[in-house]
Amino acid sequence: MNQETGKNSRLEKVLAAQREYIAKRESGYREQALKLYPWVCGRCTREFDRANLRELTVHHVDHNHDNNPVDGSNWELLCIYCHDEEHSKFDSFVRYGARGETEVKPATYNPFAGLKDALDKKKGT
């Protein structure tokens, strides 16, 4: 076997292994979730594209990585920061249990409450 033939066979093996890896990965839950959902973090609404897609992760809502229904009902796309926060909250819940209110109340603070009056005053001056 000459040197050129050896290079070609090694290249063919590498390419075949890469194609197999890609096919296996595409059948995984991450690739399925990326096809089902828009590339937006479900918490902070940060948008992703191909350049930063590696920072978008799949969170299992019930925290069971073996529960992967094909309809994606147990998946949520989260950026790495929100995903880390979600697991921190879950770990705290497991460790310490529920504390305080379990129902999240809507925000009551309105930062723009006096904006219209302030603008009207400014126009009048």
Automatic annotation (TrEMBL):
InterPro entries: HNH, HNH_nuc. NCBIfam families: PRK11295.1. Residues 29-84 form the HNH nuclease domain. This is HNH nuclease domain-containing protein. GO terms for cellular component: cytosol. Keywords: Hydrolase, Nuclease. The keyword Hydrolase applies. The lineage of its organism: unclassified sequences, metagenomes, ecological metagenomes. GO terms for molecular function: endonuclease activity; hydrolase activity; nucleic acid binding; zinc ion binding.
